[in-house]
Amino acid sequence: MSIQTKIPVSVYIPTRNRAEPLRRAIESALKQTWQNIEIIVVDDASEDQTHDILRKLADVHPISIIRNDRPKGAAASRNIALEHASGDFVAGLDDDDFWLPERIELLMNAFEAGCSAVCSHDKMDYGNRELTWKKKPLITFDDLLYYNQVGNQVLTKKEYILAVGGYDESLPSAQDYDLWIRLAERFGPVKNVPHVLQVITSNQNRESISTSERKADGYIACFEKHKSKMSRKQQAYQQYRIKMASGERVSWVELFRSTPPVLWFKEIKRKLFLKN
Q: Band of the pLDDT at 205, cuts 50, 70, 90?
């Protein structure tokens, strides 16, 4: 284990009405091999057993708990956590996902000057099937203008997130994607560690702190926010993906017309997967 484990890392977890998955997420953060970790949970006015579970965990483990008196949403909850984070580095974790024990250690060891953040391969758990999302070694600003190739969470410097203004609370969804674009534009590409270090629970029944029916609205708002930075090819692909996210029927002709050839195989698989 590297001596650099003395560097403090703040883990922030926003949550709302997901008491049982939250316990698993927190336990995965507590089991990290990185020694100096601070865990901050922002309870977004949950109405289930979340408060009781957090209180019991905090009686045994050093967990900071912040409770919103009314629902404020995922972006606001993450910004609140960041305001309270004491670590030089920060890493987000969704309340129904969980980490493998070496995630923080491997991400911290991979972080270097010239990159804005570090991510990893993810295991996507769809309930009835699992897939591994393998990512490029370096995900550039140009890559991100096509689509979110990073995923839902990264490890980065707290000062980097604050420098670009934190999570955009005006977006109904896609706040993570918007942040990655701004980080990569300001501080450089996102580096990927080629190991599965996070398991993402991803199924159609998954609810979000960000209202699920506004998901497409968030993609549209994110697209409009960064549209001026995009090439015509990037704009066309973004519009194609927005139609997919909106549940609109997209023809095979439109797929090939709107998608860069390098992404044809990816979109064919996605179209067939959604059809099934």
A: very low
